[in-house]
Amino acid sequence: TTRVILSKRPEGLPSDDNFTIEKAPVPEPAEGEVVVATKYISLDPAMRGWMRDAPSYVPPVGIGEVMRAGGVGEVIASRHPKFSVGDHVNGLLGVQTVACVPGDGLHAVDPSLAPLSAYLGVLGMPGITAYFGLLEVGALAEGDTVLVSGAAGAVGSIVGQIAKIKGARAVGIAGGPDKCRHLVDELGFDAAIDYKNEDVAARIKATCPDRVNVYFDNVGGEILNAALTRLATGARVVICGAISQYNNLEEVKGPSNYMTLLVRRARMEGFIVFDYAERYGEAFRDMGGWLTTGKLRYRETVVEGIEQFTDAFAKLFSGDKLGKLVLKVSD
Ligand code: NDP
Description:
Strands 3, 4, 5, 6, 7, 14 and 15 form a seven-stranded mixed beta sheet that branches. With 331 residues, the chain is of the alpha/beta class. It has two domains: 150 residues, Medium-chain alcohol dehydrogenases, catalytic domain (Quinone Oxidoreductase, Chain A, domain 1), CATH 3.90.180; 150 residues, NAD(P)-binding Rossmann-like Domain (Rossmann fold), CATH 3.40.50.720. It is built from nine helices and 15 strands. The structure holds NADPH dihydro-nicotinamide-adenine-dinucleotide phosphate. The site of NADPH dihydro-nicotinamide-adenine-dinucleotide phosphate (NDP) has 30 residues, from helix 2, helix 3 and helix 9.
């Protein structure tokens, strides 16, 4: 197997200095283990957090360990009763071309229902995050105005579309005119705000005349601050992520205008998608249906070759991609 090892903890944006790529023999599976030939590796902003030596909802990746990542692939050997050679599975396979992992952590996926890579995006962790984040944490109601940042990304693009499906207005914030056009013309958002070229606060005011009932935040920082100024009474602010802060070398600054929460009787709540593990089936059922009927669309950006890992990962922070970012490592 070819694998990417975390060799040094990054400060700021991770680079090739932080990883080594090595070849290693594939171990024989022990009882309960499964050997998987990886096809696609998921590149997620959360991985930046896993590189940090700090307490979080999962332990950090250790120095000298294979970088943790979700992935999909095909079973090539199995000593687990649930999986046979030829099955396709989704799970934490790590950044490696062949993974030997406990079968209990894997889920079977069906490549005849959707392309394998979709199980890392719309039918995977990002899609489920959008679903429960908006409907449960955001307590979406028909007629609401939903504002979502990181709107052209894996999670944000689904948030806006679910909002529309449920009879709400959707306004997205994304970087650049092309992404903004994509949101409105292809994904059916009501409006889009280009945070790289427009005055975000002024554009929120213009595009959300009845204020914002749900702000789904993927980016944090200044954009969160701008969104807080336009909350409607009883608004819900869903803290899904804060990608603008992940490579920060300074201390994260709090939103200076959080007092709008008081004035607007609003609440701000964080969540982790894994909290909904027992209810993933509900999300799959709804999202699968919406995909089949064409109500839900998705894009992905595929980078080929495991040796491209660091450059590909950096696209999450430069925004040089559309929709879900994946690394393809074999056919
Ligand atoms: P995306 O596909 O959205 O990729 C990241 C995007 O963030 C980029 O494309 C870029 O888009 C935008 N971005 C990067 N830097 C900045 C910045 N400084 N300011 C504003 N936008 C920026 O990633 P995901 O959809 O996978 O994840 C979105 C968020 O959701 C992340 O914060 C992630 O950590 C979080 N998350 C949380 C989960 C949970 O359980 N709570 C689960 C899964 C994800 P652009 O071109 O528009 O700048």
